[in-house]
Each structure stands twice: as C-alpha cells, then as structure tokens.
Amino acid sequence: MHFIRLIIIFIITAALVGCNLTPQKHGGYIPEEVNILDVNINVIDYTPNDLSLLVGDRPIANSSFVISNFANVPDFEPGMAGALGVIALDSSYEIHLPEKLEEHLATKFNLSKVLFTELESPSEYSSIKFNGPKSEINELILESYALINITENGVAFNPQIIASLYDNNGKFIWQNHYGFPSKVKTWKEWSDRALNDFFIAAYKQLAIQLRTNLNGEIYHHKIIPDPVIKLNLPEVL
User: Which pTM was predicted?
Assistant: First the structure.
C-alpha cells in the first residue's frame, strides 16, 4: 500500500512539473457566479485515501477520526532517504490507540451526522442530503472528521470540514478546509456525553464559517475564549 502510494505521488509530482496547470480556487468564499441556493448539498462520511493524509497520520477504519502524529515526524533521519525512507517514516510514526477505544469512537460518534443536523435545522438551502450518492454535478460535498492528537495531558480532538464544490459540468471549482480554532483539553478520562456536546458546539462554529463563505463573504474570526471541557475515557480499555 505504501509503495503504491509513493508511485502515485511520484507520477503526480512529475505531471505538475511538466505541465502548466491552471490553479483551482481554494479557500475564501465560493465563486461569485455560483448561487448556493441552486446547488445540491451532500454531507457524506469522510473516507480519506493515502494521498490525502500526511506522513504519520492514520484513519480509524469506518470512523470520523484520523490519528495524527505528523508533528513528531522528522524532516530527515540519518540513513533514511528516498522512497524507502518515506515508507519507513510513514509506518513507524503511525499511532494506534487501544483497539477497544478506536472501536468505541467509530461506533459512538458520526461527525458527518452532527454537521448534517446543524445545517438541516433550520435549513436555508434548497437541497441537502446525508450520505447520498455523489454526483459531482452542481454539488457541494461536505466531509467532516476530527484529527486526534496525543498530548501529555491525554487526547485532543480537532473537528474539521472539507467543502468541495462542482459546477453543472462536474468540474471542480472551489474547495475550502475548516478547522475548529481550539483544542479540547483532555485529562485521563472523558465521557461520551461531554465529548458529543463538544462536537456539537464545534460544528456550530464551523457551520458559521461555512455559511459565511457560501453567502459569498469572507469569514472574520472573532476571538472567543477556548472551551475547556473535562472528558472521561470510557471503560473500554
């Protein structure tokens, strides 16, 4: 899997160097010619591929979570270079939580559903669906997930949204990434209810940013106090 990933990365890199490609629009608000009321919104489960993940990051299977260790991956290790070095780095720096804990996160929390609920009620959009088939024709695809970082205090969750917009011809025309500006502070334990409340609060904030951009405006972050929520690990370890 890692070897195939490296081959694909090499091919894409070579193509970008050899071709003069027109850059796509990333960040900010949607193109002015797009009327969001005419766009179909589809909130889907996050299904990352190897190319979309940083070295050291690992998705929890069938879940809304990616365990990140990219901050601890060195730029270079003596004796490790080239393709084999990247393979070794990627595998050796991946983090695994206890199997029962990963299974618990996967079964108890669906962040796409949290986002869908926030956008649906009340909804100012003409069409919004959950986990519908992707058409990529006049469609805004929203994927939500949370990065998990292991800290000296415990586990920190960073909710995210990836928004990708396609025109009437199925051409990709805009994308933006949204991340909750603060990390939940964790200790040795957390409760499902407290964590779910945190995700709901986080996606309310992220939805404000998303709606602002969909209305053709730039979102200006307002400085608010970081939420401090004490969480308790479930008794599944």
Answer: 0.78
